[in-house]
Amino acid sequence: MTISVQNLLIERRYPFIASLFLLLLFVCFFILSTNTSQPPPLYRVLQPSSHPTVTQNISSTTATVPVLEIDGKKSNIATDRDLDDSGGGADLVFEWELCPGPLAVDYIPCLDNYKAIKSLKSRRHMEHRERHCPKPNPRCLIPLPVGYKVPVPWPKSRDMIWLNNVPHLKLVEYKKEQNWVKRSGDYLLFPGGGTQFKEGVTHYIQYIEKNLPKIGWGKRTRVILDVGCGVASFGGYLLDKDVITMSFAPKDEHEAQIQFALERGIPATLSVIGTQRLTFPDNAFDLIHCARCRTVVIFMGELSGGNPLLELNRILRPGGVFVWSATPVYRNDERDKKVWDGECSVNSRRVFLYAPLDGCISAIPLTETGSSYGWPTPWPERLKSKPASLSTEQDAERIFHEDTKHWSELVANVYLGGLGVNWSSVRNVMDMNAGYGGFAAALTDLPLWVMNVIPVNGPDTLPVIFDRGLIGIYHDWCESLSTYPRSYDLLHSSFLFGNLTQRCEMLDGAVEMDRILRPGGVVIVEDTIEILNKLRPILHSLHWSVNLHQQRFLVGRK
């Protein structure tokens, strides 16, 4: 007997009809799903329902997100859902998963690309410590260390941090005789010791200035670089003298040294002098410091050809000081003395990411009349003085001073009181599109520091930032930053994403912001309403609270 829908209806076999209908739907769904392309690893995009909400579309992995204890009260990291979807809505709803593996809590995509590192032909020049960014960018979220707590506030954090936030004890044992770091219960303590700081870092700083009074900490010398900084106690204590130090070291066997520095609230970045230029402009630093640098091996050895020392020469301001602090066994070594002699032809190029090291001495910049630039105005007048590296175009000086005034007024009238940010809990700040550094300049009276980032595809204003007595780096925001997760309390972006989305996806920028921002941290984005309406559903899907102010400022809290 032939089965037809008409016969089934006549015989009222409705359950069979319903089952057949569901079976057909399942077959259609299976065919469609198996013919679509696979999404990137650990990331899915779902089409929204008519009224999507975050809780309906976040994957079950978010249930493993730890709970923070704030002022004695437990609070989930992702709580508020105060986004008003009426202002544009979401075209897509995103579902996230945590990065896998036991090392995921400290994952740095461009430094932990083990597949690329394994395929290197050579490691003689520290190539394995340089950046090797994966393609495509990872789109998973970084889990928290077990027992993570709100960081110890500044200035107390200079001397102690929570062990659970940076649970690495290798340096405690390895450097126990040198007072780098010690454990005390739930804390890690930083006594201010170091390989060269036998009598403590404060005495060491005073000793340097006593032997070379022209240094003038905090007046003539404002911006310095600490090469191979350890746990950055040198830079941390110089903050008391109005000196801002860019501390840097590679991610190497000295476990988590830069992570310690950032958790302490001290400016620091991951980098290495290998085969590529550092991400700083020419003639940037007033002073460069290196403790226990063995020049034969590190700077002028057979393997390096002297290029690392020439690279430090490139970024040291003319008239600046190089402080080489050597252990006694190296101090009188004839080989170490001789390597400081030598000449090279002159060469000068603008700095870009991944540019190879030069083998020659960089040119000293000259004015239009052919004379060399003088030393910057003493700090703090230096902050608002005309920078020597400012463009010579007719309106450049006027534009610079207007930019300074603009940011001073905007920060005072909007940022400090109108956006709901608790600035007393903010220490580590990053300006993702810094321009002339006006945002950082307007915040200099607060107990915080700002890492100014100049995108590589925009105007090169980083020399101006250093001339003002501030610090910064070049970076391409289509890639991951060379820093640890949970490095910053506040990220600021002014009209960055419009240009960025012409080269890569906004989603990648949002994932990176989530990686480097601490739980409870804040993102302030100033941009067009079109950009903000595209960005806010992404941040909302990350379980951030998101608010819009004046149709111009988006404030997201992780």
Radius of gyration: 27 Å
Number of strands: 21
Percent of residues in helices comes to 25-40%
Strand content: 15-25%
| Quaternary structure of the protein | single chain
By CATH, the architecture of the domain at 381-557 is named 3-Layer(aba) Sandwich
- Strand adjacency order, main sheet: 17-16-15-18-19-21-20
Transmembrane segments: 14-32
Subcellular location: Endomembrane system; Membrane
Keywords: Glycoprotein, Membrane, Methyltransferase, Signal-anchor, Transferase, Transmembrane, Transmembrane helix
Family: Belongs to the methyltransferase superfamily.
Describe this structure in words.
It is built from 18 helices and 21 strands. It has 558 residues and is an alpha/beta fold. Among the domains are: 150 residues, Rossmann fold; 177 residues, Rossmann fold. Strands 17-16-15-18-19-21-20 form a seven-stranded mixed sheet. About 13% of the residues have low confidence.
What would a concise description of this structure say?
Helices cover 26% and strands 18% of the residues. With 558 residues, it is α/β, with parallel strands linked by helices.
Helices, strands, pairings?
Layout: H1 5-10, H2 14-34, E1 43-46, H3 54-57, E2 67-70, E3 73-76, E4 93-96, H4 114-118, E5 160-162, H5 170-174, E6 182-184, E7 187-189, H6 201-211, E8 223-227, H7 233-238, E9 244-249, H8 257-264, E10 268-270, E11 285-291, H9 295-298, H10 307-315, E12 316-325, H11 328-331, H12 334-338, E13 346-347, E14 361-362, H13 396-415, E15 428-431, H14 438-441, E16 449-455, H15 462-467, E17 471-475, E18 488-494, H16 497-500, H17 506-516, E19 517-526, H18 529-541, E20 545-549, E21 553-557
Parallel strand pairs: 8-9, 8-11, 9-10, 11-12, 13-14, 15-16, 15-18, 16-17, 18-19
Antiparallel strand pairs: 1-4, 2-3, 5-7, 6-7, 19-21, 20-21
